[in-house]
Structure formats: structure tokens, C-alpha cells
Specification:
InterPro entries: Taxilin_fam. By secondary structure, the protein is mainly α. The chain has one domain. Helix content is 92%, strand content 0%. It is built from four helices and no strands. The longest helix is centred in the middle third of the chain and has 73 residues.
Length: 194
């Protein structure tokens, strides 16, 4: 329906899963408020015995709309689950790529280290004129080691940050599923009451 289309458009405008979850929670709160309003109407209809048939038809019509709204919410929840699955796959893929980069840097570092060490050994056997070159090579080696350590620290921070993001998405998804379960239980009780 138009409402679902507008909601999907709003979701598409958001950048992060957290913002999309917040929007879904707000939509769910609106549906819950509508559901509570319908319960008040039901109590009022029970007091109007003379018009019970007409009022019951009206309640059934409103109930059908509530079912449609719940169906839309379930559809959105399934979409969120698919999005979460894609996010996990993307995170795994990025982790693999970062691991490959780490291995490549390590291999390059080891190769460069071996080359520099060989050059240092050769230079040490030469005359005093080459002493300055040995010093420069040692400084280059230290710079490479520092860069490698900084890269390792940066990669660790990236992995920890992505792990925290994934835990946050999982927690919000679990909360959304629990809220939908509670809504289903209320709907079932109302159905039995009618």
C-alpha cells in the first residue's frame, strides 16, 4: 500500500542499519497505539447492546486493517533480516580482504627486512666511507617496522569497531523480533476475545 511504499522510501533514504531500526521502532509504536485505540473501541461497543451487530461489523473491519498493518510490519522485519544477513556477509568478506592485505604487508616486510639486513652485512665489510649508508639503511628499517606496527594497530581497531557494529545490529534485531512476538500475542488474545 501507499503507507508501506512511503515507509520503504524513508528506509532507503537512511544510511545506517541503526537509523533504519529506529524508524521501524517508531512505526511499530504507531501501530501499537492504533491497536490500543481499537481495544478502547471494543469496550465501548460492548456497552451498546442495541447496536451490537452493526458495531461488531465495524470492529471486524478495523480488525482487518490491524491484520494488514501487522502483515506489513512482518514484511519489514523479514526485509531487515535479509539486510542483516547481507551485512554479515559483507563484514566477513571485508575481513578476508583485510587479512589478505595483512599477509601481503607481512611478506613485503619480511622481504624488505632480509634485503636490508643483507645490505647491512655487505656494508659492514667495506671501508669507513660506507658507514653513513649503513646508518641510513638502519633508519629505513626502523621506519618500515614502525609503519608495519601502525598498520597492525589500525587493522585491529577496524576489526573491533566492526565487531561492535555487528553486535549492535544483532541486539536491535532481537529486540524488534521480541516486540513483534508480543504484538502477535496481543493480536491472538484480541481475536479470541472477539
Amino acid at each position: 500500500g501507499k503507507e508501506a511504499t512511503l515507509l520503504m522510501q524513508s528506509l532507503n533514504k537512511l544510511n545506517t542499519p541503526e537509523e533504519k531500526l529506529d524508524l521501524l521502532f517508531k512505526k511499530y509504536a504507531e501501530l501499537l497505539e492504533e491497536h490500543r485505540s481499537e481495544q478502547k473501541k471494543l469496550k465501548y461497543l460492548q456497552k451498546r447492546q442495541a447496536q451490537i451487530t452493526k458495531e461488531k461489523d465495524q470492529l471486524q473491519s478495523e480488525h482487518s486493517r490491524a491484520i494488514l498493518a501487522r502483515s506489513k510490519l512482518e514484511s519489514l522485519c523479514r526485509e531487515l533480516q535479509r539486510h542483516n544477513k547481507n551485512l554479515k556477509e559483507e563484514t566477513i568478506q571485508r575481513a578476508r580482504e583485510e587479512d589478505e592485505k595483512r599477509k601481503e604487508i607481512t611478506n613485503h616486510f619480511q622481504g624488505t627486512l632480509s634485503e636490508i639486513q643483507a645490505q647491512i652485512e655487505q656494508q659492514s665489510e667495506r671501508n669507513m666511507k660506507l658507514c653513513q649508508e649503513n646508518t641510513e639503511l638502519a633508519e629505513k628499517l626502523k621506519s618500515i617496522i614502525d609503519q608495519y606496527e601502525l598498520r597492525e594497530e589500525h587493522l585491529d581497531k577496524i576489526f573491533k569497531h566492526r565487531e561492535l557494529q555487528q553486535k549492535l545490529v544483532d541486539a536491535k534485531l532481537e529486540q524488534s523480533q521480541e516486540m513483534m512476538k508480543e504484538a502477535e500475542e496481543r493480536h491472538q488474545k484480541e481475536k479470541e476475545y472477539v
